[in-house]
Amino acid sequence: MFMKFALCNEVLQHLSIEDGFSKIAEIGYDGVEIAPFTLKENPLDVNEEDAERCIKAAESAGIEIIGLHWLMAKTEGLHLTHQDEGMRNAACEFLKKLTKLTAQMGGKIMVLGSPQQRNLEPGTPYEVAFERAVSAIREVCELADEHGVTLAMEPLSPVETSFLSSCREARRFITAVNRPACRLHLDIKAMAHETAGPVATIFEHRWEVAHFHGNDVNLRGPGQGPTDIKPIADALKAIDYHGWVSVEPFDYHPTSEDCARISLENLNKAFAN
What we know:
Layout: E1 4-8, H1 17-27, E2 31-34, H2 48-61, E3 64-68, H3 85-104, E4 109-112, H4 126-147, E5 150-153, H5 167-177, E6 182-187, H6 188-191, H7 198-204, E7 209-214, H8 229-238, E8 244-247, H9 256-271
Parallel strand pairs: 1-2, 1-8, 2-3, 3-4, 4-5, 5-6, 6-7, 7-8
Helix pairs in contact: 1-2, 3-4, 4-5, 7-8, 8-9
């Protein structure tokens, strides 16, 4: 089974977009997954010109832009569950803007993690926050459906967020949104906190999985920590997963480029027949 691998571009954010994309291709990745904060100091200012720059850089490098992640990271005034309706509307409008930019770049996936923009406020009942977020994300997904973009909800550990902190809760959320564009994202680091463990979690949510991030519980790249990634690769193959696997480390060891290269080598070994 052929699996396509992408690199999250913030790993090489010390390079220009053009040089970074070229390096990603040189290392051997098939695609790039873009964080908006790598395009503008204030991600809210990301626009069509930035998208065109990325398109040209990807075409020159010979790689595919698969989509976006870290959607609301390093922004202010955006929140999905806040009592302030203005903040919720701003988050919704920004996500719709990113949806259009993703489609412009030929991308198909947007990974919604952004824990700081979804955490519960003190005193806010969970179900109230849940309905607020469902309303906003449903509106985004209606636009995403029109543009052929999938919004992949990322459950994070309870250490990282107080909202959607398990795969089952994310699935409940996706069911409530009830739009084809709203699906599930899985991440090795985050799945380590699932009671069932990564492999069983993949099988349990096989029908909802739209995207996958490779990393490890020590925040380094896949295969650079204690997690055995071979059973995870086997599980993805067993469920006939045809999406991308993107490398998203947080600790670039020993260097950014080495981390990207070692991660790809580890993934190729894990997915080899």
